[in-house]
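Why do we bother with holo predictions? Because pocket geometry can differ from the apo form. Keep that in mind while you read this record for zinc ion.
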Amino acid sequence: MGLLSFALPRRRDGCLLYVSDRGLAHLVLTRRGFGAITFGHVIVASVEPTPAVWRHELRHVAQYERLGLSFLPLYLWYRARYGYLDHPLERDASEDPRLFS
Ligand SMILES: [Zn+2]
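The structure, written out:
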């Protein structure tokens, strides 16, 4: 996804950040109404992340570290069951208390 954003990544807080307004990543992000998406330690954003967005995405990185490869199927299952606003991983990334410390 990062490579298909046609942007050069840069390191930030132990992650690779791609910021791109073109490519597959931008298409997926804008179609889904998201500003950024996280895959492990790779964060792809359609615009430079604000501090709040960056904190949110870093929380998803922490979730990936805890859940490993089960993150994606669990994320999709929660998404189908709860939608976005009540999604436990999104709520965890957006507010306290945390699921993981
Ligand atoms: Zn999120």
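The chain has one domain: 3-94.
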